[in-house]
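User: I'll paste a sequence; please echo it back and then give the predicted structure.

Assistant: Echoing your sequence first, then the prediction.
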Amino acid sequence: MAKVKVTIQNRQKAVKVTPEMRKLIRLSCAAVLENQGFSDLAEVVVTFVDDAEIKKLNNEFRNIDKSTDVLSFPLGEGGEYDLNPETGAYSLGDVVISVEHAVAQSEEYGHSFERELSYLTVHSMLHLLGFDHVNGGDEAALMRKTEEEVMTVLGLAR
């Protein structure tokens, strides 16, 4: 498995963040890096928030005044990332997950909360590595295919 230091922050109270959830997030991050052949040490920050906070962030950074499930804040560009001299790891960026959205979407899609949490992490990690789906087409199809590959490796395929 790829080496990644994942810092997990909890700024919500709707769902208790368990050691199993933390492990799943770390495994999901590592699986994406493994899938993409990212062999260097990496670091990522994953923050759990409520819908009110993610709405605020979505408005501030994307000018969209509504809540969403996950936001990605990549630190790299074109496959180039800053090296953190203190840790020797490449800083990929930040992932912000609305736990309230994750719960609602797991119910809507009829799968476990754990699968939804992992999927949102995988999706966001791919954004940190430069994937995008906003314009649709081949780029979106490649991102979707890669998400499913990683979810299958994690044992969480649809």
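The two ends are 22 Å apart (CA to CA). The chain has one domain: 4-153.
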